[in-house]
Structure to design on (275 residues):
């Protein structure tokens, strides 16, 4: 809503409507995104180990989700894809 | 305490400060979530994948952001792109370059809602909490009153008073007086 002077006007109803548009994202999603730096470090460790140990590499590729979970990393799809790409390189 | 600007936040993230990354995620999580679920109407599972992918990309590419103060439009663009890609993957329809008008309108509304949240974050903790609980978390007066240890009957007046403060900030009217009244409200 704007007036002739170009200034936006906000009555209570409009403010309430705009506030309602941004509810919190699910806490688990936010937590997982916040842990990305840690997850990246864990992935680096897994990739290094996979380079040195072929048996570990095979086991990792067989169940990437379990490998991430074992390192305490929430196995979200982007991280699973990233780890698979990096180990397969 | 004055919140960090987006540019300051980017600089701290690039310096490897974990708390700064958490702050960035916290600042933009609602926005990314709303774009995916409200503007593009992705189902929860798809929205979660988009949400995580967006923050992975932000983390990976933050050093490529030429103007750190443009963090918000950059994240919005990444999210839009990710949602469009997701929709294309799940559809056999010929991709359409232009977004439907209703999506564009919703994105505009979310941008405005984000502006409101920026101003909300400048209000007292009490105002932030009561407005967030009532409007964003859909809590009742009774629930809010119990959480804040206030009589439920005073919640409505507090909400109204805080909305007034928020409106003063948004409309830019008499900002000095608004800041002064904000201090009184703490």
């Amino acid at each position: 809503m704007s007036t002739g002077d170009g200034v936006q006007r906000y009555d209570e109803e409009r403010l309430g409507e705009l506030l309602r548009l941004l509810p919190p994202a699910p806490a688990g999603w936010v937590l997982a995104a916040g842990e990305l730096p840690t997850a990246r470090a864990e992935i680096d460790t897994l990739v290094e180990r996979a380079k040195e140990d072929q048996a570990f590499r095979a086991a990792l590729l067989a169940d990437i989700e379990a490998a991430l979970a074992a390192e305490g990393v929430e196995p979200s799809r982007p991280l699973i894809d990233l780890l698979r790409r990096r180990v397969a390189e | 305490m004055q919140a960090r600007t987006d540019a300051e936040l980017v600089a701290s993230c690039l310096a490897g400060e974990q708390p700064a990354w958490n702050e960035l995620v916290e600042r933009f999580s609602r926005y990314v979530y709303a774009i995916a679920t409200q503007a593009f109407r992705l189902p929860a599972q798809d929205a979660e994948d988009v949400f995580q992918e967006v923050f992975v990309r932000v983390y990976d590419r933050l050093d490529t952001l030429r103007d750190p103060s443009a963090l918000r439009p950059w994240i919005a663009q990444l999210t839009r792109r990710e949602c469009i890609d997701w929709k294309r993957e799940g559809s056999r329809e010929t991709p359409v370059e232009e977004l439907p008008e209703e999506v564009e309108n919703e994105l505009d509304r979310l941008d405005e809602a984000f502006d409101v949240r920026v101003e909300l974050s400048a209000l007292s903790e009490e105002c932030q909490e009561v407005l967030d609980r009532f409007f964003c978390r859909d809590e009742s007066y009774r629930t809010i009153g119990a959480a804040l240890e206030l009589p439920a009957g005073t919640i409505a007046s507090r909400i109204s008073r805080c909305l007034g403060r928020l409106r003063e900030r948004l409309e830019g009217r008499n900002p000095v007086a608004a800041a002064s009244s904000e201090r009184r409200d703490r």
Observations:
- Chain A has a mean pLDDT of 87.
- Chain A touches chain B through 31 residues (CB under 8 Å).
- Chain A has six helices and no strands.
